[in-house]
Structure formats: structure tokens, C-alpha cells
Specification:
- The structure is a single chain.
- The protein is an alpha/beta fold and 304 residues long.
- It has three domains: 110 residues, no CATH class; 126 residues, NAD(P)-binding Rossmann-like Domain (Rossmann fold), CATH 3.40.50; 47 residues, no CATH class.
- The chain has ten helices and 15 strands.
- The strands form four sheets. Strands 3-2-1-6-4-5 form a six-stranded mixed β-sheet. Strands 8-7-9-10-11 form a five-stranded parallel β-sheet, with helices on both faces.
- The radius of gyration is 25 Å and the shape is elongated.
Length: 304
Amino acid sequence: MVHGVLEEAGELTRRGQPFALATVVWRQGPSSGQQGSRAIITESGDLHGWIGGACAEPVVIREAREVIAEGVPRLLLLGAPEQFGSRAEAMPEGMTLVPISCQSEGALEVYIEPVLPAPHLVIVGRSPMASTLAELAQALGWRVTPRDGAEFAAADADEASMVVVATQGHGDEEAVQQAVAAQPAYLGLVGSARRGAAVLGYLADRGVPQDQLDRVHVPAGLDLGHTTHREIAVAILAELVQLRAAGALQRTAPATPAPAVVDPVCGMTVTPGPGAYRVEVEGVTYWFCSAGCRQSFEKTETRC
């Protein structure tokens, strides 16, 4: 199971997708989660692996999605407060107690850590400047995709990528049009302001939406005055680092899950969804953490 989780983690990393890795570091039986159990949770809330049963899983998924969004790890203590006694009172700083009502009366301590992709930079064009920019970005640990202008396509980038078009007059319009279609987090064109205006004007005449063209940075990079070609690479990288540090190149947020509700039987927080347990009574939908709570509710309703 662990090997499968790690393989999945490697695949997500290769695809540049963020995820959270959850690990059970302590358990109090009876609990289906075992010490060392691991699971991967994606941005959309998909879980791969095993972290525990119906009580723990929805809580871990909810917390993991927040960990991905914030980029900060969390250490969770899952269970009823009365189970832990002095342990709950003496929780170390940074640990969060998440009350859950589980029929097994088990408890778990789960460490959730974010695994965020390295920044992805696509450099379109071949030149000493492009080579220098690639070397500098790789030195920062960024993932770099170099492309000749003729071979570049929108599929080479996504909404989290940064794209720098440095074709320098050799198919600038076609390269920028492909880059605009990818809707990257950043799109810069290397060239003068006059050249940039001509390229963007041409694309506007071709029907490219103006709001997309307005997102093109031209000239790309910070204005450092008169610089050499290789120094332009430093100016571009400086702009990208500055924008990332300011949070201006954030990924598109994943779809917001349905608001959490309370299980009317045990009081546990439940996230509604296709796989959750539910019962509809007189037009009102009740959600449950497990089949046992749903069964208890149905028996009560039947007696009433």
C-alpha cells in the first residue's frame, strides 16, 4: 500500500500537480488506521491510499485541502476529547484537536504535509538570453521547458505556468497566440514596447479577446535600464520572483466543496457528496458519517 501511495505521489509530482501526504503517526485502538498508514489527497479532494475509516477520512480530506491551499503542514489529533485526558490538555503547540464521534472509539494522530509543485517556466525561443534564463531558473529549482517558436503549442503550458516568449521577431504573433490560449499565470514577451504593441494589435485584429491580451507583460522583466541580452534574463527572472513573492501568480483555486454539515446522531462534521451517507425525510436531507449512524437515525424515525 505504501509503495502504491509513493508511486502515485511521484506521478502527481511529474505532472506538476499539488497534493497533500497524510501519515498516521499514532493510533489508539480499536481503529482501522494503523501507525505508518499513508494516503495522498489531491486539490479536488480525491484520496489515494488508506488513512482510516469513515470517521477519519472526511476530516482528513477537509484538512488536507486547507493544507494544500495554505502550504503549511498540520498535525491533527482525531477523536473525542475525553479519550485523551491529560494528553489533550498538554497538546504541543501546532497540534490541532479535531473532535470526531466514532463508533469504534478509536483515535488517530495524523500529520498532513503539503507537496507543492516546483514553479514551471516555459521559454519559447532560442538565444543566449533564453539559455541564461533557463540556467538561472533551474538554479532556483524551477521546472523549465524550453521550446523553439515553431514547435511551441498551448499544451506546453497550463494555468500555473509562466511563459516567456523570446522568439525575437521570428513568429512572435503565433507564439503569443498559442501562449494566450493556455491562460498561464504569467505571459511575457521579450521585445520593445513598440514591437509589443504591434504584436498585440495584430492579435486583436485576429479576434483574440482584449482582456487576454491585456495580461501580456511587454516588455517582459523589470526595467533595469540599458542592459545586455543576458542581463535581460536577470530582469525577467527578477520580475517573476517578485510576482510570486507577492502572491500574484497563484494557481486557480479548486472548486469549493459543499459546506460541511453535522451528523444528527453523533454530532460529527460531515462533508456532503456522492459517497456520503444520507437520508431524506419530508424534503429534508440528513447526512451521516457512517452507515451505523444512518441506521440509528432511521430506527428512531421509524419509532416516531
